[in-house]
Amino acid sequence: PRGLVFSYNPGNIIIITDTKDNIENLKKIVSLMESLSDGQQIKIFKLKFSKSNEVVSALNALLSNYTKRNIFYRVVNLSSLNTVAVKAPKEIINEVESFIKSIDKPAQLENTNYRKFWTIKLKNSKAKDLANVLNKLLENIQLLQYTQVQQNKQIKSQQAPKRISPNANINTVNISRNRKEKPKIIAEKTTNTLVIYANRLEYEAIKNLVENLDKQKKQVLITALITEVSQKALKEIGVRWQILGSYGGAAFKGGLSTEGFYNLLGSTNFAAGVLSSSGRNVSISGNTLFFPDLLFLLSLLDRGTGFNIISSPKILTMDNTEATINVSQVTPFASSLKFDVNGNPIINYDYKEVGLKLKVLPI
Question: I need a surface site. Which of 58, 136, 319, 329 has the fewest CB within 10 A?
Answer without folding.
Answer: 329
